[in-house]
Amino acid sequence: SSALDQGYSAHFYFRKDFIWSVSTASYQIEGGWRADGKGLSIWDKFAHTPLKVFNDDNGDIACDSYNKIEEDVAILKQLKVTHYRFSISWSRVLPDGTTKHINEAGINYYHRLVDALLAANIEPHVTLYHWDLPQALQDTGGWENEAIVFKFRDYADLIFSRFGHKVKFWITINEPYNVANIGHGYGTAAPGILRPGTLPYIVGHHLIKAHAEAWHLYNDTYRASQKGIISITINSDWTEPRNPYKQEDIDAARRVLQFYIGWFAHPIFNGDYNDIMKTVIRERSLAAGLPKSRLPEFSLEEIKRIKGTYDYFGFNHYTTVLTSPVNYGKLQGAGLIADRTWLDSGSSWLKVSPFGFRKILNFIKKEYGNPPIIITENGISERGPFNLNDIHRSYYYEKYINQMLKAYLLDDVDIRGFTAWTLMDNLEWATGFEERFGLFYVNRSDPNLPRVRYVPYRSSKPKTVVTKQEKQLNANSYQNKFKMQSQASES
Ligand code: BGC
């Protein structure tokens, strides 16, 4: 059985040890923003700045998970997940971001959570950084200042040493792309810096180095005794040429993809920034009269140190965009639109386009050397009046999981796990509580913030996920999976 088995038959066909998980992030659910010695994070500050978050919502209380471990674990049990992905709030354990002062009350909260999960037979999958940098570190330059690389490593060191005997699944950083672009380019997320152009690339550079240092630390110091796995979570849409017969549109799709998934995946999986990014950014920088490229360079030693710092490909995916070339705006020189026939969601950027999931999984397999992949987020939002009948979300998950199944069964993509975003409706960053991605509804008009399961839509008959023709076309991959499946069930 699995988190998402109600209404689907698909899960049967994945690996026996498949991870079925659901995800949250500290700032989005915890609340307790000043409880028991917690320091402030950049999100506390951002959300307390008028007009930054829709409706001036903030995470002061959020889902009050800081005080609701029992409730959260109870709903995880209801979902029958094998794993739970959550993040640690850096400023809850290190109020000023440095190890000079450790907040034991904060450490203790995560111990109680991890212990409750393990007692419920649910494996913790822990993200070290899901966007809530300690404000004290922002005050000394945050991700723009290279000193952050070793601050992050020290923080990781503390967490591995305190939790590594219990936690076996780690993520260093969630979505470096969004940290760099949204936080430091558009400024619509904390720290809210509007400096597109050079700054996102500097921030991205330090994020990659920080990740690599944390990975090496784990690898050298903790792996042998703690025996866990650690990686980074990279997000990307799939890019589809607006007109698949037009070379310019095809080129635009390739370009945008290299600026998106490729920005972080290429240095970590293949070594160094990809050639498309290097060439395009350099040309544009020189054309703008700059003395050199806006994209920083890695030294040869750095390239070597960063390459291979992964145990799996942690991947967040939600949607697809259509690409065609334009000469203005975005550095990649491409316009991004959605197809008007794709179903909507509660988020402007998210359209239901499941075919792109299979395509980008195949892209990862080919481009990055067939790594084991854990989907660390996938899901859909609603907004406006709420309805407990979860037809829209059930439809989305069914279609996306079936595309993932095809990638696994037919295309031999090494998919090890799937994580739904998100456990319960929570603070959807700058759009506040308005956009709801949860598998559980949180009734915000009740001070107890009760979690109520949305009712998944069950199709009357199990769907035919893979057609006869598809099975024939991909006979090798398909038959192998069945061998594995029957061997696993014999043993
Ligand atoms: C983030 C989540 C966010 C979700 C939906 C991802 O970008 O990791 O924190 O809530 O997508 O927007």
Provide the descriptors you would attach to this structure in a database record:
alpha/beta; binds beta-D-glucopyranose; glycosidase; lactase activity; 40% helix; TIM Barrel; single chain; GH_1_N_CS; Lactase; 8-stranded parallel β-barrel; glycoprotein; 491 residues; globular
Kindly describe this structure:
By secondary structure, the protein is an alpha/beta fold. It is built from 16 helices and 15 strands. An eight-stranded parallel beta barrel has the order 1-2-3-4-5-7-10-12, surrounded by five helices. A three-stranded mixed β-sheet has the order 6-8-9. Strands 11-15 form a two-stranded parallel ribbon. α7 (148-163) runs parallel beside α9 and α8 packs antiparallel against α9. The radius of gyration is 22 Å and the shape is globular. Beta-D-glucopyranose binds next to loops.
State the shape: globular
Radius of gyration: 22 Å
- What gap, in angstroms, lies between the N and C termini? 19 Å
- What structural category arises from helix and sheet content? alpha/beta
Topology, number of strands: 15
Mean pLDDT across residues: 93
- CATH hierarchy, class: Alpha Beta
Each distinct ligand: beta-D-glucopyranose
Which residue ranges are poorly predicted, with pLDDT under 50 across at least 5 consecutive positions? 1-11
- Binned strand content: 5-15%
What CATH architecture would you give? Alpha-Beta Barrel
Number of helices: 16
Number of self-contained structural domains: 1
State the CATH superfamily name: Glycosidases
CATH topology: TIM Barrel
